[in-house]
Structure formats: structure tokens, C-alpha cells
Amino acid sequence: MGELVDFFVRSRNFILFVLLEVLCFYFIINTSNYWSVTYFNTSNRYAAQVLAWSNAANEYTSLRQVNADLALENQRLNAQLTKLLQSKPVAPAEYMADSAFADRFKFTAAKVVDNTTQFANNYITIDKGTDDGIRPGMGVISPTGVVGKVKVCNRHFSVITSILHSEFLVSSQLVKAKDIGSAKWDGGDPHLIKLNDISRYKPVSKGDSVVTSEYNSTFPPGILVGRVYSVGVQPNMTFHDITLNLATNFSTLSYVYVVENRLQGEQEQLEKQIENEK
């Protein structure tokens, strides 16, 4: 207490000066319309700027929650869209998928906690594991396209084999040409991928979309893989040399959706039984 009193005694001249300055400003503002308006306009401008900074800071700190909410909303919309597409009649016109087949895909949102793109064989780690119903073999997609397939899991984490892996293949279909091939990364640019096994006699357009095909039990059909970046034909080859721009940007990947095909085990068991009988 004594130190506080000593401080006021030592600073009494400065404190008196500040009080007099405040008093002067008070009288100037209250006795002059011009200075009163100027003061309030200036104070409002600075107050608005401080409020804008405060709102920007609050919005930035809440981005994580906003992104998580958007991921959950996209998960719900993906499930609804896939169910709608799978139940849609296709040729022949009288065909209609049953409810179990149309509703066979389940989506689980997960956050990416580790991701590589610089190696020949790249992997992604997510924050969901067996406690969340994740198991090896499930497909993984992003809001924009194919990501990879679950390789191993523990209770709380899973490691995904990225599409940027030298041994990863995706059965893919050209939307316009309707031809089916295999998308495979060549280990080069992480933004580009090759589409193999497309006959050179099939017309392929630059910019055509390439999506997952119907002959795929891991991914729902129609998930974007990429778009045709370049088309060429090597001498004495029967297939096009097609390069795609990948739909998923792995350098900014934050959230993914793990896809469970509830009927995959049943399908694979039956197909394996047929193979064993051959």
C-alpha cells in the first residue's frame, strides 16, 4: 500500500497533466458541435474496426468446428445421394434395385492426421478406428473424389493406402466414352494419374470425367477419380496413353469419408465359392 502511495506522489504532476488533458477534451467536445461530431465519427470508425478484428478472430478460432460440421453434413448428403443413384432404374427400364442393395453403402467422416505425397507408396492416417466401425478393405473418398483404401486399423486410428501408391488400382469409367479401365499412379506428379486399358479405337475427349465404375465393390459407382488431362497413342500400342488430373488435392486434404459396403462380404464370399468350384 505504501508503494502505491509513493507511486502517486512521485507521478502526481504527470497524473494531474493527464486529468487536465481529459478535462480539456471533455469541454471541447461538449461545447463545439464540430469537434463533437468529429469525435463520435472517429470513435465509431475505430470501434467498428476493432469489432471487425474481433469477429474475424472469433471466426478463425471456430473454423475447426465449422469444418467438422460440414464434414458431417457431407457424410449425410453422400449417403442420401448414393442411395438415390443406386435405387434409380437402369436398363432394362423395368429394373429397380431392392432397398438393401440401394442402401448398402455407409459413410463415416474422419479427420486426416497424417498424409504423405512425396514417396512412391504413400499412406494417410485418420482419427477413426475399429471402435468407430472401420476395418481394413473399406474405401475412402474425399468431398471431391477417390482417396484410397483402409489398410490397417487399431481402436482409434486407421492407415489408408493412398491412390498415390504404386500398387493401387481403381476400376474407372469414362463418362462420355463409357469405356472402363484402371486408374493407377505412375509415381510422378501427385496431381496426375494414368488411366490404362482404354482401347485406342475408342474416342476419348480431353476434359472428360472419369468416375468409379459399377464393377467395384469397394467404392460406390460414380465417385469422381479425375478428368482427362491429355490423350496420346504410343506407336504399336493398342491402348490410349491417358493422363488424368486427380479430383482430390492431397496437399490440402483435411477430412475424408470411409465407405462401408454392407454387402461386400456376402458378394465376395459367393464369388470365391464360384472360383473354388472351377
Automatic annotation (TrEMBL):
- UniProt keywords, alphabetically: Cell shape, Coiled coil, Membrane, Transmembrane, Transmembrane helix
Of the GO CC terms on this record, one is: plasma membrane
Please name one Pfam family that this protein belongs to: MreC
| Domain Rod shape-determining protein MreC beta-barrel core stretches | 112-260
List membrane-spanning regions.
Answer: 12-29
Chain segments annotated as coiled-coil in the UniProt record: 60-87
Record-linked Gene3D superfamilies:
Rod shape-determining protein MreC, domain 1, Rod shape-determining protein MreC, domain 2
Question: Could you provide one GO biological process annotation from this protein's UniProt record?
Answer: regulation of cell shape
Q: Does the keyword Coiled coil apply?
A: yes
> Taxonomically, which superkingdom?
Bacteria
What's the family? Belongs to the MreC family.
- Which PANTHER family does the record associate with it? CELL SHAPE-DETERMINING PROTEIN MREC
Instruction: State the name under which the record lists this protein.
Output: Cell shape-determining protein MreC
Q: Which organism is it from?
A: Spirosoma linguale (strain ATCC 33905 / DSM 74 / LMG 10896 / Claus 1)
